[in-house]
Amino acid sequence: MAMVMAFGGWALPAAAADDFPGRGIEFVAGYGPGGGHDTMLRSMAKLIRDQDLTDTPISVVNKPGGSGATSMGYLNSHKGDGHYLMAATSSFITTPLSVNVGLDYQDFTPIARLGIDPTILVVAAGSSISSLDDIRNADRKLNVAGGGAGGIEHIATLMVSDALGVDLNYIPFQGDGEVTTALLSRQVDFAMVNPGAVADFVSSGRLNALAITTDERSELFPDLPTFTEQGYDVVAYVFRGLVAPADISDEAKAWLGDLVERVQATPEWKANYLDPNAIVPGYLNGKEFGEYLEETNELYETMLTRLGLIGG
To answer: Which family, according to UniProt (predicted)?
Structure first.
């Protein structure tokens, strides 16, 4: 039987504890300070430090550019070195599909998925639309607000169009603030948006939420039904995960996976990161995350092809 050593209160294989890490771990954010990648990684680093989960130094570096392509190239330049851990969200899939960057999800080592950002369908208070059936039965093409072309809101709108059997006019905006303004001013009929961006408007009654794109109801929005339970097959969300370079050692993979699993298991992770950012828990280990990425890539490739956004 292999010997084990206690590491930070958890048992790890002796080889992993002895050989890895050999120096500090670098967390890599593919977007600038204050963005989603940066916020997640800095929240992790702070929790690791505050909870004394490891004595290994953790630093966060930002490598913005190319909708995540720059950080992917940076991580790939450290192939075989497990001392790098990069935030991965949906752009990790969509950027290589949309633009030929010479890399895709298969060129990295999946470590874990930490949560998901659902999309909700919202209408302005007083709208004639009060149910999904109202959208299905509309006597004209409805205008839908959402984020940039090819993003999760665009893909979710295409799925809504398929599920309800209606043609919808998707209008991309430059951020959730513009989407909310367009909806409140009745420039559009409804919006597909991140719930965190409109939670206050829903709570105040200025907007009404009709459905959420998760598989099951979210504990953050327990009264909001899913599309599925209303009879429409629409499940779509942004994932938040972590990947390492390709070809890292089994010891490095085990150490990184263990650290991340311990982070997400703490009450502080939920209280200080997931809940304030309206992120639904959705932990997957490295193997499960790898399978999820394969399935997600297939879905996104299909949808982006239909939208005419696949690069070459």
So the answer is: Belongs to the UPF0065 (bug) family.
